[in-house]
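Exercise (ungraded).
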Amino acid sequence: MKKAKLTEITTLYRFGIPFETDATVFKKNDLTFKKCEKIDYFSITEKENKIILTLKLFKDDKVYGLGETLGSLNKRGKVYKLYATDDPIHTPEKDALYGSHPFVIISNKFGFFIDYPGEMIFDISYTKLDKMIITINSNNFDIYIFDTKKDVEVIREYLKLTGKPYIPPKWAFGYQQCRWSYPDAETIKEVANNFRKRNIPCDAIYMDIDYMENYKVFTIDENKFPNFPEFVSEMKSMGFNLVPIVDPGVKIEKGYDVYEEGIKNEYFCKDENDKNFVATVWPGYTHFPDFLNPEVRKWWGEKYKLFTDLGITGFWNDMNEPSIFFVPKTLKEYLKKVDKLKEKEVGLEFFMIKDEAVSLSNRREYYKSFYHNTPQGKYSNDEIHNLYGYYMTKATVEGFEKIIPNKRYLLLSRSSYAGHHRIATIWMGDNMSWWEHMLVNIRMLQSLNLSGFFYTGADIGGFGSNTSPELVIRWMQLGVFSPLYRNHSALGTRHQEPWAFDEYTEEILRNTIKLRYALIPYLYSEFFNSVDSLIPFISPLFLYFNDEISKNIEDQFMVGNSIMATPVIQPNAKGRYVHLPEHKWLYWKVSNYKYRNVKVYEPGDYYIDADLNEIPMFIKENSLIVLNEEEINYINEKSIKELTVIGFVTDSGEFTYFDDDGETYNFKNGKYVKINISVKKIENGYNYEIEKDESEDFVSTIEIIKFEIYDEKGEKYTEVLEI
Ligand code: GLC
């Protein structure tokens, strides 16, 4: 083992010769290593080529991180397996999901990141209350220790190491509608017309697997989508972005160009006999492109031209754990067993074949039986399993750099590895229309943000199983504060579009989505501010407040620096308990953003009322938010002329408004506007200041700023300034 000091805070410990994963942006060649025997904080044991790291946990230690995992925000009390898995039933006992983000914060002590792409097990106060036991399935890996007691600094160091969070286009902050599937162009048009006709804002409609011809990747079914280019431009003219799904499995079919090219150029993963590995996914028998090979990535990335040439800049890369329904051999064996039972009277055997059918999917043995040809040598998928989704996404992004240079894109992937957050993002996979999954959504939103996924979200309303109007309402209200605001539901389940229920539900959902659009200037500015400062956009309370209670609050979170979201996540509730730390807070109970139903609260613990049509949110003392009060159907419909600043100011408050073209990286070359807004309490009122920083190439459209400031008693003061 050897170590290299990277910064004042960060030390890298290297075990053996690790696989270079691409997780970090660090130039590893320049490192100077020294031999070492132990690593700070951990004890090390080796067993059958596995390394076990053990950390003593004290009674009050809090453990945060691990990105996309189930369990509580404080990760103590559960076992987590980092091995990308397509498991659509996210029940509490499940240990593995789709992503692998081995970054952990031991609050107020230190943090660490283990860069290893195979299986890792984190047993955190599960086997033993006072231990974290990490089993790494290899003796070749890197571990970085971030030695600072400040949690915010730990996160910053991790993000300096793995890269700044990715920034999607501005339209991606709007509302997005999805369904597996809107099967044809006519249905999508109808959905689009419904949004506009019913006066419900929306920016994107997704195209799930049914747009393809027999689920063949990079094809479009011409019967269902005749004249696709015309359809895309019709949608664009109505203000809708289409977001097609892309799956990695390439259907084995003679004459199908993607298949033929892959075969000819040896682009697919190989089995033990050096034949192309065969797995079954949606299209039937498929081959998996070997994304760890740069040549394969080049080929794959340019395929997105089919869509980008038509102006499409939104995509979701799915099934890239990679998900395997079964392989030909295991299905055959299974069917033989079923066959044998045909002549018998079946009792108990029924349960066995029933369970065995499910167990045909995603078996570990499959991942051990296919191989990647990487620039670092040949590896079985199992050894570097957690990288497949990342490298598929890297292929996409490398393609974009060529085919849509300087264009920002929305790119969701289902599987991911540490570092993925700097090139694209993820959604949280197949949740259910269960109340319990709203809490899962909130916890994961926070822990993914800690791992650099500032822009992310869950399937709102729930993907699997049938939803109810009340669940959709409460979830859509939570979604106002979720960076990715996408409603998605599975085949065969109840529809979840805002008009799918009754008129009252539709009216509430209309107002809910309109609040999101009014908040866009705040959300967009704060998103940029958080990427700049490397402080999570969605923050757990413990990053802001030091009191003991805040450290254990999981169902309230900060959105940017000024708003605390306190969503209602229980059925039939008329409100909820909230913890209001440290400051006074201005409670804004929103049913329609045009009305300010506000009240000042002293710090403390309360039950607050929030009826089904009311969204509870709090504005922090001495902070400001900005709204666009003009109604819009979609983000780029009109330029904003007037901003409303709402503030709760007992002394002084500041806000930096940010805007740019919303679709390129020109902001990196100074093409943006920043307006620094500050409000100071003076005798009998307030002093307002505005300072504009804009470049010649990007001029602000804002002409008027309206101030609406509340003092410690909740008295309102107004002012209008021209700029
Ligand atoms: C997977 C995805 C889901 C998608 C479905 C059909 O289950 O996670 O979002 O709708 O496949 O493509």
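Further reading is listed at the end of the chapter. For now, observe: The first strand starts at residue 2 and ends at 5. The mean pLDDT is 97.
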